[in-house]
Write a structure and sequence with these properties.
Aspartate Aminotransferase, domain 2, two-stranded parallel sheet, globular
Length: 390
């Protein structure tokens, strides 16, 4: 009997053939063969993270975004975007004081559990998006509604005050560039509106900037345009800069999609005051910065340029080829049947991991997904998975 290998289009995992094993092998050898590198990398790390990696990330981000304010003091090393989100919530929210978590929907389906684990069961509010990204008007109406309902009677925070700690009244979660799962990118104008709204309502915008470096021109005729400014950068410069030392936006980033998810290493960029507070999360104070050894390896790949080469010469060409082949098949076989493509499929820039499409009204998504799995061994997700349950 012939064994059928399934085609997994469900999970946002990098393909095994794209994992940079040789790059990581050389980086680990470089660290372990030099006691000046191996001793600190195998010891407990300073709470903000491995300093050479913070320096390397700051230099690299300056090159990518042209942001001279990106300095090591604005960077904190994390154990990946998911772990870092939990730490941010532990330090900068209090379920007794923080009103709601506003989640741009459809959303990354596993993020809701992280919010619920931090005390926000029943207080996740879905915010729709359109072709320009998050619906800011809808978000403001929801924020204003709950502000009015509170009538100035917010409960006091129950957490004991810590160093460089602030509790925000509201949390806004978004994947602004090539969103998971819709593939949409929030426009510059919407990002600016979002920052102003966050300042008005004492909200922290947590932007998962996971897919920024996995993008390409939809054609081969022009060089790629500059990366769209991140929300954290807009918060730094808009209307004179942050209105508080903590700011109202952070960039939650990761090496999972550009190196390997098993490395469990990422970074946060925010104001220096916010970074100081985040670094004092209890787990970091107790155990030191997460991923200390891996951080030392990644620092090598940034300093010698092998990470950037991997992105430009391996990841982008491969993902572009796969994306366009998938898109071509969808347009040829499914669009004539009434399927509608969402996201950035027709724009000058394409990228990310996901393609989102709507089925004709006569087809139930759950049945479609089941048939694809049983009959064709193709694993895909139905839209219900990406709902925000409040």
């Amino acid at each position: 009997m012939v064994e059928i290998t399934s085609i997994d289009l469900l999970r946002g995992w990098p393909s095994a053939d794209l994992l940079p094993t040789s790059i990581l092998e050389e980086a680990s050898k470089r660290v372990l063969n030099d006691s000046a590198l191996s001793t600190p990398s195998l010891s407990y790390g300073d709470e903000p993270g491995y300093e050479p990696l913070r320096e390397s990330i700051a230099t690299w981000l300056l090159q990518q975004y042209n942001t001279p304010w990106t300095v090591p003091g604005r960077i904190c090393i994390s154990g990946g975007a998911s772990q870092n989100l939990a730490c941010v919530l532990q330090v900068f929210t209090d379920p007794a004081y923080t009103r709601n978590v506003y989640v741009v929907a459809p959303t990354y389906h596993l993020v809701c559990r992280i919010f619920e684990d931090n005390g926000f069961v029943g207080r996740l509010r879905a915010i729709p998006e359109d072709d320009d990204g998050v619906d800011v008007a809808y978000l403001e109406a929801s924020l204003a509604k709950h502000e009015k309902e509170s009538n100035g009677s917010d409960q006091k925070a129950t957490k004991r005050p810590q160093v460089a700690q602030k509790h925000y009244k509201n949390i806004i979660y978004t994947v602004p560039t090539f969103s998971n799962p819709s593939g949409r990118t929030t426009s510059l104008d919407r990002r600016q509106q979002l920052v102003r709204l966050a300042r008005k309502y004492d909200a922290l915008v947590i932007a998962d900037d996971i897919y920024d470096f996995i993008q390409w021109n939809s054609t081969d005729t022009n060089p790629p345009p500059p990366l769209i400014p991140r929300i954290v950068d807009i918060d730094h410069v808009l209307d004179g800069g942050p209105t508080t030392p903590f700011g109202n936006a952070i960039s939650n980033a990761s090496f999972s999609k550009i190196l390997a998810p098993g490395l469990r290493t990422g970074w946060t960029e925010a104001t220096p005051t916010f970074i100081r507070g985040l670094s004092q999360c209890g787990s970091s104070v107790s155990g030191g910065a997460p991923s200390q050894f891996v951080a030392s390896m990644i620092a090598q790949t940034l300093r010698n340029g092998t990470l950037q080469d991997h992105i430009e010469k391996v990841l982008i060409p491969s993902y572009k080829r796969r994306y366009q082949a998938t898109l071509c098949a969808l347009e040829r076989y499914l669009l004539p049947l009434g399927v509608v493509l969402e996201g950035q499929t027709k724009g000058p820039m394409q990228g990310g991991y996901f393609i989102y499409f709507l089925l004709p009204p006569c087809i139930l998504a759950k049945e479609f997904v089941l048939r694809a799995s049983q009959d064709e061994a193709v694993l895909i997700a139905d839209g219900n998975m990406f709902e925000v349950h409040d």
